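# nightly structure sweep
# worker-07 picked up a monomer target from the shared queue
# config: single-sequence mode, recycle default, output format = structure tokens
# input follows
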Amino acid sequence: MAKKLVIKVTAGADAPERCSQAFTVAAVAVASGVEVSLWLTGESAWFALPGRAAEFDLPHAAPLPDLIDSILAAGRLTLCTQCAARRDITEQDVLEGVRIAGAQVFVQEALADDTQALVY
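# output follows
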């Protein structure tokens, strides 16, 4: 049975190293053949919008748009329902391939067999 990884990232530009680590771990896991579900919550919610990742800059880190592209190509990227609502973000606003879902879906994914969960 395949291994699965669910990652919740709560940090955005307010904590750039923590934010970058979450996206990097997700992208490396995807490249390694792991089934990945990355959840954008809190300040990371803004990265569900087109162009926002390009504004993120952290020296010696992979570009966030490249990491997001690799995650979307072979994994799942989800924006928290409440976080989206608090920021007036709708399904029409987000990058193609990003879904909006709530805590119930996160819990289902995190508790699935052979799944590891990480929070950044």
